[in-house]
């Protein structure tokens, strides 16, 4: 188990509480993600956490495979999905870098608030691309820790607690890096909050 995974195993039970402080962008982010997957037959969600986005996208997609790599997160996710009565969600443990799904399987991949946590961003994007159908949609909203002075300071405070961040974005740098990896951006929005979220939705160039 990596140090990053161990962190999320330990802190899964506190995740929703932390989002009560930092999660002001979450309702808008979840609503945009739901719009992005509307009428999709099969959606993969990675880093689903406790299901803050899962419940929104499951309302409009035919089927959702919701995954996380921390066992404790998956346990909480399953509990929350059962409580919500969502029969079209399957909860699984999955490694972003080694997704055990066939190529060209999913109409959309949702990867919310995880890109800044990944040691190898390019490998993760390649993994998402592999399982997406041609012209399948990637929805990848991401906390932008360097967006402004307050978020810059909040991010540095988080790092002192052991928070496993690997990069800090602005909404502009997030968009630029995703475009450099071959994503054609179809929708972008910066959602205000203590740490703003850069909402990005697009498709990979053929």
List keywords for this structure.
206 residues, alpha/beta, 8 strands, 24% strand
Give a structural overview.
The protein is of the alpha/beta class and 206 residues long. It has eight helices and eight strands; from the N terminus they run αααβαβαββαββααββ. Strands 1, 2, 3, 4, 5, 6, 7 and 8 form an eight-stranded mixed β-sheet that branches. α4 links the parallel β1 and β2. It is globular, with a radius of gyration of 16 Å.
The average pLDDT score comes to 93
Distance between the termini: 35 Å
**How are helices and strands ordered from N to C?**
HHHEHEHEEHEEHHEE
Major beta sheet summary = 8 strands, mixed
- Approximate helicity band: 25-40%
- Counted beta strands: 8
- What's the assembly state of these chains? single chain
The parts where pLDDT drops under 50 for at least 5 residues are none
Rg, Cα atoms, Å: 16 Å
| Tally of helical segments | 8
Structural class, from helix and strand content?
A: alpha/beta
In short:
The protein has 206 residues and is of the alpha/beta class.
What's the SSE blueprint?
Elements lengths: L2 H9 L3 H8 L3 H12 L4 E5 L7 H5 L4 E6 L2 H14 L4 E5 L12 E6 L9 H11 E8 L2 E2 L5 H12 L10 H10 L2 E9 L5 E8 L2
Parallel strand pairs: 1-2, 1-4, 2-3, 4-5
Antiparallel strand pairs: 5-8, 6-8, 7-8
């Amino acid at each position: 188990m990596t140090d990053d995974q161990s962190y999320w195993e330990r802190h899964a039970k506190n995740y929703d509480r932390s989002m009560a402080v930092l999660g002001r962008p979450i309702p808008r982010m979840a609503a945009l993600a739901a719009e992005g997957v509307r009428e999709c037959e099969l959606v993969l969600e990675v880093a689903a956490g406790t299901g803050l986005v899962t419940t929104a996208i499951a309302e409009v997609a035919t089927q959702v495979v919701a995954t996380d790599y921390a066992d404790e997160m998956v346990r909480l996710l399953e509990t929350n999905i059962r409580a919500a009565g969502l029969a079209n969600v399957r909860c699984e443990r999955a490694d972003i870098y080694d997704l055990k799904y066939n190529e060209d399987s999913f109409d959309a991949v949702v990867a919310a608030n995880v890109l800044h946590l990944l040691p190898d961003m390019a490998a993760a994007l390649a993994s998402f691309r592999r399982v997406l159908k041609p012209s399948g949609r990637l929805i990848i909203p991401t906390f932008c820790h360097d967006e402004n002075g307050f978020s810059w300071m909040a991010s540095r405070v988080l790092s002192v607690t052991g928070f496993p961040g690997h990069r800090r974005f602005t909404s502009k740098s997030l968009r630029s890096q995703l475009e450099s990896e071959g994503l054609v951006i179809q929708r972008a929005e910066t959602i205000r909050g203590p740490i703003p979220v850069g909402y990005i939705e697009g498709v990979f160039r053929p």
